[in-house]
Amino acid sequence: PPLRFDVLTLFPGLFEGFLSESILKRAIRRGLIGVNLWDIRRWALDKHRSVDDTPFGGGPGMLMMAPPVVSAVEAVQASFGDRPGRLIAMTPAGRRLDQAFVEELAREPRIVLLCGRYEGFDQRIFDILRPEPLSIGDYVLSGGEVPAMAVIDAVMRLVPGVLGDDQSAIDESFGPDGGLEYPQYTRPRSYRGLDVPEVLLSGDHAAIARWRRQHRRTAGPSR
Ligand code: SAM
C-alpha cells in the first residue's frame, strides 16, 4: 500500500472494530492503506511478560519499561528492511496534532505509532528512539490507542483514492481554501419548523457558492 501504519500497543484488540468498518476497512481492502498491529508484550523479557514497573523516586502508577518498548520498536523498524519510517510517540506532552501536520504525514510512506499506557514512558525510550512526541489535545486519556486511531483516521482520508470523491477532503474544514465548513442540509426540506434555505434548492450554482462562502463558520462556540 502507498501508506502503511505500524502501531505498537499493549492492547491491539482495541483496533479491531476501528479497522473493520467503513472507510478504513475499504481503504485497507483496496490496498490503499496498510495497518500492522504489534503487541509490545511480545518483547517482554521475564516470564511474567512484564512491560511496566513503578517509577524511581516514588509517585503514583506504573511506567512502561524501556527494554521491551525499545526492543519492540527496533524490531519492527528492522523488519521494514529499507527506511525506518516516521516514528511518533503518543503523549499529552507532545506537539499538538493539527491538519497541517496531518497533511505532512499523509505524504509519508510509512508511519510508526507508539502507544503509551499507565503513567507513560520511561524517559530513556525517548532518549534512545528519538520519536516525535505527538498529542491529540490538552487532556489526558488512559492510553495512546485512541490518539493513534485519531492520527490514522485523519491521515488516511488524505490518501488519494480513499474517499469516494476526491473533492471531499478539499472542500472541508481546514482545507486549502482555509475556510471552515458551511451549514449543510439533507432531506427532509422542513423539520420541526426549520426549513432548508431556499437558495440551496434553487439550482443556481453561483448563488449557492456565494451563500456557502457567506455562511462559512469562522468561529464555532468553543473556538
Ligand atoms: N503521566 C502522563 C502525563 O501526565 O502526561 C499521562 C499518561 S496517560 C495516562 C497514558 C498514555 O496515554 C500516554 O503515555 C500516551 O501514550 C497516551 N495519551 C494520553 N493522553 C494523550 C493525548 N492527549 N495525546 C496523545 N496521547 C495521549
TrEMBL record:
GO MF terms, alphabetically ordered: tRNA (guanine(37)-N1)-methyltransferase activity
Subcellular location: Cytoplasm
Catalytic reaction equation(s): guanosine(37) in tRNA + S-adenosyl-L-methionine = N(1)-methylguanosine(37) in tRNA + S-adenosyl-L-homocysteine + H(+)
UniProt cross-references to CDD domains, sorted A to Z: TrmD-like
This protein's record includes keyword Cytoplasm: yes
Coarse class of the protein's main subcellular location: cytoplasm
GO biological process annotation, one example: tRNA N1-guanine methylation
Matching NCBIfam families: PRK00026.1, trmD
Function of the molecule: Specifically methylates guanosine-37 in various tRNAs.
The name this protein goes by in its record: tRNA (guanine-N(1)-)-methyltransferase
Organism from which the protein derives: Tautonia sociabilis
Lineage, opening ranks: Bacteria, Pseudomonadati, Planctomycetota, Planctomycetia, Isosphaerales
